[in-house]
């Protein structure tokens, strides 16, 4: 066996203690759902993990009522200091159960354990720790003295970072004094259920956090519930648009974190080896199922060939396979639907004249897999340069001058993220100024931090998560 | 700083790459044109390679390979014949409890100890063959390099004459930091010349950059490239006398340089991290970094070495653990 | 060589020269492409002027002009934007009498009330002139992230903002929505109060002579109910400020705006016009990360 084949190094699943069936967690109780229960399958094996309840309108109503009651009777009146202490407790328990959560997330989502262990779960704990400290300092978020929580927050999150997106939503909401009803995505409900256990261990008062499972209908019922004060959604632009319409004219506050088609711009003076890593990280992190993925590589024409050659060489070392293997770089696609979408778009990109390349890599027989792929010769007008693919597929475009790079980078209805690779500081700053994107990574990519605001321009949504802006989204000016 | 158009000593690689009118200016322009290094990205990549998990059969193979890549080293002012004999004995029989244990690539000593090492190795001395143990000698006023060029070259010639198969020279870091790349270049070329044996063959030349004194990664990349241009067979991180010595990011960077050199010329240059690599776990990270940067071809003692003294015993402890299934202890491996 | 010229004696019968009130698009004063005008009468019903009545195509042209002008305005230094906004106040001060007169005629105010409104508007321009180089320090932050990164968040202009100006106090209302939008570098397409078109166009003349680049502010006099849906639906508008749309079907406008996920500021009562929060409501937080190495 060649050294680079690395013997299997699977993370043990014995750390998990899963139930066969999870119900809804409403008002601190596990209750049956009114809808038909459904199974979540592991995307890498297609094996069912557990069954989950579907919350119908009545369940949604019960959850919102539980949140309202908790807001009125316990969480609203509680001092910021004590709310903070609960969040600190949660942060610590998340750290204590980090490995278990990482394994569960990897199992349910299909992403490599390397990522859940080193990125998702540590960030989850950090997010709670960060927001915990805000709870007794709300006078300083920039809304004047004694800002007020909205009340009940309805939160709907996607499947690409299940627990991390929960943390981005729940932590600031609770720190600000809101209570929440959260719905995880139907393909990745597992870690939200484990989070319910974490809340139980922390002794969080009943109803402060309510977790309901189900598909799109459950989410729609939740955000439309009349007694909800604040809606936060992360997901597709299409659904975000529908929510914005549904909430028009209502007093509900709305923040949206939607799609993207991030440009990763490589100038000819880039630190080349690091740029290659940044390109790889930008599009293959989490199989490219990242709204801020650097899915459009804009490379200066005079280094195009060198970059592409090195990129392909590097891609050939990516290891695709069992997400629970500690050496896996590329895990499974989250669902068969997503796999079909990726496949369709890449086929279309090829049909439109793109040149498709993927390293030799054997795909497992079971599960949903797509090899890391680069499509070169893509033009600004190509479908795969326009549409969000949400998969491990990089479209390569070229540019000649900084102005052209900026124009191409901004030539999209989205505006979430962008990358710049250049060793020239003045150019980096000038280009960063002109990019219409909420997050610009210079000589790095896909970095997240609870102190750093995240969110998009244009059709990538509105509002920010993280930082002082993230706290403002869950507060209104005091009287 | 720059001496314009100063003619440099001829060095085949540099002439081929930079053209016949090899000058200080041409050299400087070439080195300054190398791609920049972003330190954070480099360190992040190294850290990520460090998280690879090498288990079971892969680990077994990697441990044996590590031993075969070690330059078992003693470089102390108080080295004696006895100490060198002891070191050589350890190289010959790393683990008496397991005859299948491979031997290290070389023993590495000061130049005046080369004769002792050769004598102690006896028939195990490679003496140019591929299946024995090499004797490597540090030279050129190691570790500081602060001596006149004639002294450095004589130091080298003495070691080669005494039988050194490999010369580990140090570059003039002062000259490098002054921007006097031509001086550094010339000294390497001259040292390479001093490695020539009477039969016309050369002792292998490892060029020590002393990365802990160059400090920045951009300097390391330039010095690596410069050393290769001037004729080095290996580029080596450190003397072991300066902290930090070898680090994973620095080694990764030097591996990227030799990978790029191969891409450009087809020629393969070796890399030797030295100093501070003490555990098998660390060695695994280096092997992963080698394999994922340069490919499996570099997993070869001709192209990658560890300059180390205590690493060997830790690898042996891990080896015993794999064999017996139990954790071993320091009393079950021999000291040199 | 000086010659004496005789000034004609002012007689009571001298004919005034009335102004043609046109649109303000891209720094120019075109008539509506539709050829339509609205007759403006004073409170006693006497004819005052024919004011251009903007059409959807005028709105389209205005958006195009705004988009073209926006990067340059945003790219100007904050100091420069501040000086331009201050210049607006200066020029306005010098033409106070004209605005007082127009307000008296269209809003039926006493001279004193009209003057009060004009002075309040001037002072609001001065206030916002002072915000340009400060608001980023209120809304921007250096973020202490857990890693070797320089990380900075700054408020940037949202882009092109369409505004339905307040229907009361024509000049002050217009100023209260336009000035805060301009502070950070947005470009504006504004529909002024339907009842106060004169001051809106006169303000446009002030803007046109205050070093404000053409296209940064575009004024569309006309029927807000007719123009607003086109602006709400225009894909090249980034934000919709409905401060003065309380009498329109603003919920429907918000629904239309959701098609392109515009930022929407709902009708009054909103944020006070002099606050940094009002300015920041039309900004995007951009966060820039850069590696920060030890070496």
UniProtKB/TrEMBL annotation, chain A:
Source species, domain of life: Bacteria
InterPro entries referenced in this protein's UniProt entry, alphabetically: Ald_DH/histidinol_DH, Ald_DH_C, Ald_DH_CS_CYS, Ald_DH_N, Aldehyde_DH_dom
Gene Ontology molecular function, alphabetical: oxidoreductase activity, acting on the aldehyde or oxo group of donors, NAD or NADP as acceptor
Keywords linked to the UniProt accession: Oxidoreductase
Cross-referenced PROSITE patterns: ALDEHYDE_DEHYDR_CYS
Domain Aldehyde dehydrogenase: start-end pairs: 30-476
Gene3D superfamilies, A to Z: Aldehyde Dehydrogenase, Chain A, domain 1, Aldehyde Dehydrogenase, Chain A, domain 2
UniProt keyword Oxidoreductase present: yes
The family this protein is said to belong to: Belongs to the aldehyde dehydrogenase family.
Protein name as catalogued: Aldehyde dehydrogenase family protein
Organism: Agrococcus sediminis
Automatic annotation (TrEMBL), chain B:
Domain of life, source organism: Bacteria
GO cellular component terms, semicolon-separated: cytoplasm
Keyword Lyase: yes
Key word Lyase present: yes
UniProt xrefs under Pfam families: DeoC
Pathway the protein acts in: Carbohydrate degradation; 2-deoxy-D-ribose 1-phosphate degradation; D-glyceraldehyde 3-phosphate and acetaldehyde from 2-deoxy-alpha-D-ribose 1-phosphate: step 2/2
Enzyme Commission code(s) on record: 4.1.2.4
Catalytic reaction equation(s): 2-deoxy-D-ribose 5-phosphate = D-glyceraldehyde 3-phosphate + acetaldehyde
Record's keyword terms, sorted: Lyase, Schiff base
InterPro entries to which the protein is assigned, alphabetical: Aldolase_TIM, DeoC, DeoC/FbaB/LacD_aldolase
Gene Ontology molecular function: deoxyribose-phosphate aldolase activity
Protein's GO biological process: carbohydrate catabolic process; deoxyribonucleotide catabolic process
PANTHER family linked: DEOXYRIBOSE-PHOSPHATE ALDOLASE
Family of the protein in this entry: Belongs to the DeoC/FbaB aldolase family. DeoC type 2 subfamily.
Protein name: Deoxyribose-phosphate aldolase
Organism (species): Agrococcus sediminis
Name of the coding gene: deoC
From TrEMBL, chain C:
Organism: Agrococcus sediminis
Name used for this protein in its record: Aldehyde dehydrogenase family protein
A GO MF label: oxidoreductase activity
Family matches, as SUPFAM superfamilies: ALDH-like
Keywords on record: Oxidoreductase
Matches recorded under PANTHER family: ALDEHYDE DEHYDROGENASE-RELATED
Lineage: superkingdom: Bacteria
Domain Aldehyde dehydrogenase: from-to ranges: 42-245
Lineage: Bacteria, Bacillati, Actinomycetota, Actinomycetes, Micrococcales
């Amino acid at each position: 066996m060649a050294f680079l084949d690395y013997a299997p190094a699977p993370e043990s699943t014995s750390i998990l203690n899963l139930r066969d069936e999870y119900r809804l967690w409403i008002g601190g109780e596990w209750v049956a759902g009114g809808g038909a229960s459904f199974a979540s399958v592991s995307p890498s094996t297609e094996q069912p993990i557990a069954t989950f309840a579907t919350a119908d309108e009545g369940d949604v109503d019960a959850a919102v009522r539980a949140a309202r009651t908790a807001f009125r009777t316990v969480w609203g009146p509680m001092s910021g200091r004590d709310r903070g202490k609960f969040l600190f407790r949660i942060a610590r328990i998340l750290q204590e159960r980090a490995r278990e959560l990482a394994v569960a997330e990897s199992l349910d989502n299909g992403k490599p354990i390397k990522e859940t262990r080193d990125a998702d779960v540590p960030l989850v704990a950090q997010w709670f720790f960060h927001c915990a400290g805000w709870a007794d300092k709300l006078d300083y978020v920039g809304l004047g003295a004694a800002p007020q929580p909205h009340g009940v927050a309805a939160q709907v999150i996607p499947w690409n970072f299940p627990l991390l997106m929960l943390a981005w939503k729940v932590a600031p909401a609770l720190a600000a004094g809101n209570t929440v009803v959260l719905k995880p995505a139907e393909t990745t409900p597992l870690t939200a259920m484990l989070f319910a256990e974490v809340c139980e261990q922390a002794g969080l008062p009943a109803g402060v956090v309510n977790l309901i499972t189900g598909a799109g209908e459950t989410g729609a019922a939740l955000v439309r519930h009349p007694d909800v004060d604040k809606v936060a959604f992360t997901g597709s632009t299409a659904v975000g648009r529908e929510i914005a319409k549904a909430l028009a004219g209502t007093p509900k506050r709305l923040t949206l974190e939607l799609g993207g088609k991030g440009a990763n711009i490589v100038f000819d003076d880039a630190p080349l080896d690091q740029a290659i890593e940044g390109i790889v990280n930008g599009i293959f992190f989490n199989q490219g199922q990242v709204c801020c993925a650097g899915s459009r590589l804009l490379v200066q024409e005079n280094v195009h060939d060198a970059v592409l050659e090195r990129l392909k060489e590097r891609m050939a070392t990516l290891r695709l396979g069992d997400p629970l293997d500690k050496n896996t770089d590329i895990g499974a696609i989250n669902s068969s639907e997503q796999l079909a979408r990726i496949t369709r778009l890449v086929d279309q990109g090829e049909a439109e004249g793109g040149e498709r390349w993927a390293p030799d890599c054997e795909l497992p027989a079971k599960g949903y897999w797509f090899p890391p792929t680069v499509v070169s010769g893509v033009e600004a007008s190509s479908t795969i340069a326009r549409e969000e693919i949400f998969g491990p597929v990089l479209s390569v475009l070229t540019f000649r001058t900084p102005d052209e790079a900026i124009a191409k980078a901004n030539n999209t209805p989205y505006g979430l993220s962008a990358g710049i690779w250049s060793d020239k500081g003045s150019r980096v700053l000038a280009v960063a100024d002109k990019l219409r994107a909420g997050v610009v990574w210079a000589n790095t990519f896909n970095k997240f931090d609870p102190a750093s605001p995240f969110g998009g321009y244009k059709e990538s949504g509105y509002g920010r998560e993280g930082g002082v802006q993230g706290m403002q989204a869950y507060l209104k000016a005091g009287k | 700083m720059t001496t314009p158009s100063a003619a440099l000593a001829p060095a085949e690689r540099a002439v081929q790459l930079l053209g016949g009118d090899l000058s200080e200016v041409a050299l400087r322009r070439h080195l300054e044109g190398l791609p920049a290094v972003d330190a954070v990205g480099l360190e992040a990549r190294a850290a990520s390679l460090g998280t690879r998990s090498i288990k079971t059969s892969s680990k077994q193979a990697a441990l044996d390979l590590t031993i075969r890549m070690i330059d078992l080293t003693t470089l102390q002012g108080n080295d004696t014949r006895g100490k060198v004999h002891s070191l050589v004995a350890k190289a010959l029989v790393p683990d008496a409890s397991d005859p299948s244990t491979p031997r290290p690539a070389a023993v590495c000593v000061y130049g005046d100890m080369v004769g002792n090492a050769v004598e102690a190795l006896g028939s195990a001395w490679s003496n140019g063959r591929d299946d024995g143990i090499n004797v490597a000698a540090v030279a050129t006023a190691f570790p500081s390099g602060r001596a006149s060029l004639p002294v450095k070259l004589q130091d080298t010639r003495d070691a080669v004459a005494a039988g050194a198969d490999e010369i580990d020279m140090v570059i003039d870091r002062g000259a490098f930091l002054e921007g006097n790349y031509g001086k550094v270049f010339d000294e390497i070329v001259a040292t390479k010349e001093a490695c020539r044996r009477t039969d016309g063959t050369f002792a292998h030349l490892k060029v020590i950059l002393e990365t802990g004194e160059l400090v920045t990664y951009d300097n390391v990349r330039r010095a690596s490239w410069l050393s290769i241009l001037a004729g080095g067979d290996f580029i080596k991180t450190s003397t072991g006398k300066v902290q930090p010595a070898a680090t994973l990011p620095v080694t990764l960077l030097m591996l990227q340089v030799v990978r790029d050199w191969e891409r450009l010329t087809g020629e393969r240059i070796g890399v030797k991290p030295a100093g501070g690599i003490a555990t098998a776990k660390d060695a695994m990270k280096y092997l992963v970094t080698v394999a994922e940067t340069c490919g499996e071809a570099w997993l070869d003692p001709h192209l990658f070495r560890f300059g180390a003294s205590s690493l060997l015993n830790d690898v042996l402890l891990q080896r015993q653990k794999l064999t017996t299934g139990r954790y071993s202890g320091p009393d079950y491996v021999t000291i040199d | 060589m000086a010659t004496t010229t005789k000034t004609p004696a002012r007689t009571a019968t001298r004919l005034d020269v009335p102004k043609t009130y046109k649109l303000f698009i891209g720094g120019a004063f075109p008539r509506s492409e539709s050829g339509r005008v609205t007759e403006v009468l004073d409170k006693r019903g006497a004819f005052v002027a024919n004011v251009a009545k903007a059409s959807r195509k005028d709105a389209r042209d205005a958006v195009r002009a705004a988009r073209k002008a926006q990067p340059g305005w945003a790219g100007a230094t904050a100091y420069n934007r501040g000086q331009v906004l201050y210049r607006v106040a200066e020029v306005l001060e010098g033409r106070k009498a004209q605005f007082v007169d127009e307000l008296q005629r269209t809003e039926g105010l006493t001279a004193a009330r009209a003057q009060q409104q004009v002075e309040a508007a001037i002072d609001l321009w001065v206030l916002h002139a002072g915000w340009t180089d400060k608001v980023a320090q209120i809304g921007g932050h250096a973020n202490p992230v857990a890693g070797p990164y320089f990380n900075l968040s700054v408020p940037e202009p949202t882009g092109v903002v369409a505004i339905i100006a307040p229907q009361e106090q024509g000049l002050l209302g217009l100023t209260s929505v336009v000035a805060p939008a301009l502070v950070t570098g947005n470009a504006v397409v504004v529909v002024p109060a339907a009842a106060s078109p004169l001051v809106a166009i006169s303000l446009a003349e002030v803007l046109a002579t205050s070093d404000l680049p053409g296209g940064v502010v575009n004024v569309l006099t006309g029927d807000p109910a007719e123009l607003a849906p086109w602006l709400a639906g225009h894909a090249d508008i980034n934000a919709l400020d409905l401060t003065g749309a309380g009498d329109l079907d603003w919920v429907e406008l918000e629904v239309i705006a959701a098609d392109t996920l515009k930022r929407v500021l709902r009708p009054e009562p909103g944020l006070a016009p002099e606050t940094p929060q009002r300015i920041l409501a039309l900004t995007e937080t951009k966060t820039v990360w850069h590696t920060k190495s030890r070496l």
